[in-house]
Amino acid sequence: MAPIDPIVLKSLADLQPALYWLDADPLEPESHSALVGDVTTDLCIVGAGYTGLWTALLAKERNPKREVVIVEQRETGNGASGRNGGFCNASLTHGFVNGYTRFPDEMAVIEKLGRENLNEIEATIKKYNIDCDFERTGELRVAVAPWQLDGLKEEAIARNETGDHVEVLSKEEIRKRVNSPLYEGALHDADGTALVDPARLVWGLEKACLSLGVKIYENSKVEDLIDEGSQVVIKTAYGQIKANKVALATNIYSPLVKSARKYVIAVYDFQLVTQPLTKEQLESIGWKGREGLSDAGYQFHYYRLTKENEILWGGYDAIYNYHGKVRQEYEARPETYAKLATNFFKTFPQLAGIKFTHGWGGAIDTCSRFSPFWGTNFDDKVAYVLGYTGLGVASTRFGASTMLDLLDGIDNEATNLQMVKHKPIPFPPEPFRFLFIRLTQWSINRADQNQGKRNLWLKLLDRLGLGFDS
């Protein structure tokens, strides 16, 4: 590791490798019992994160008489749903440019569905009185190099032509909103992003599901799915569930449908949280609009203010471990914390002296097109959605709704999308997968340092339809 600035070292001295959102929160619910014995249900959902909970909630809202059971291998929200940055973004395609590159003819519809989806999330939070610090403050994507601003201007034109309403801010305008010496301009989306406490959103959705009669079993890892003709048997260590339909909401954990495994890999993302900012520190950076922020580079940071005016700062590094293994020891990475802190103080040098209190990481389910994909199995009795690539706080609701549509045989605007009908290009097997990802990450880093110019490897990926942008 390269020498680390003393300011950075001091800022990390008291960091706890702990998940900020779970730090003694009084709203954390009681745990649920494991599945013991035999259960029969209309719909069984595997996974109690955002996708699973949204699937259960929507299923009961559409048909209150439908029996719905959720089975979770650990506890509700244990995975990515409880450890993300809380950016609830309207995009269903991991950003407009990524979606426009892959689905140009559908982008107007996809963007419309994304905005409707975010509106429905806000309505659900109000309907069920979910206390999750929901703030629809919008987003600022900031250019930290001139070439990035050129890209934001092009994006703004394309987005507004598809029905979005975004504007480009000059260097002077963005620095009046948020004061950083790095900013060259920004793309402002006033209402396309909300900020939430992600863990409280999970718990609120869980409470809403329980109020509608959904049954939840925790600490019950599914060991096998067996097709029995008219039903599917879901086997766990101490019991089994016989269900007419099964929705798989397993995120990065090994897909129970083996044919889906080649499409997803686990990439680890990391975050830090500062001490609460003093009044003087807040005044030094502005940020009165409390927007969510992200950089416009291929490698980017995302950051936001919490309810207590701490700054959550994450992203940039995306760590792939050989064979894509998901392990608890991968959730802390001191070298990444140092990189994050170094870039934090480059962005906000006026905050020198502030300390970071929490640092953690989590696995993201990434696919080669960086946006969710769907599939069915067992004669359409089983459906799944995977591949959110880290921007899933809002898109999981759309993913769940569309998965439920596929199970129910509904023909609508969502299920007719090519985005829904087709899967991404699969990843190669190891060791080629590891080499492929490492070469791509090295090339993306070079592109960021070379005014966004993509080398021959990235151009080849673009031609193949992979188009790695982040």
UniProtKB/TrEMBL annotation:
Gene3D superfamilies assigned: D-Amino Acid Oxidase, subunit A, domain 2, FAD/NAD(P)-binding domain
Limits of the FAD dependent oxidoreductase domain: 42-398
GO CC field: cytoplasm
SUPFAM superfamilies: FAD/NAD(P)-binding domain
Any Pfam family: DAO
Protein's recorded name: Unannotated protein
Native species: freshwater metagenome
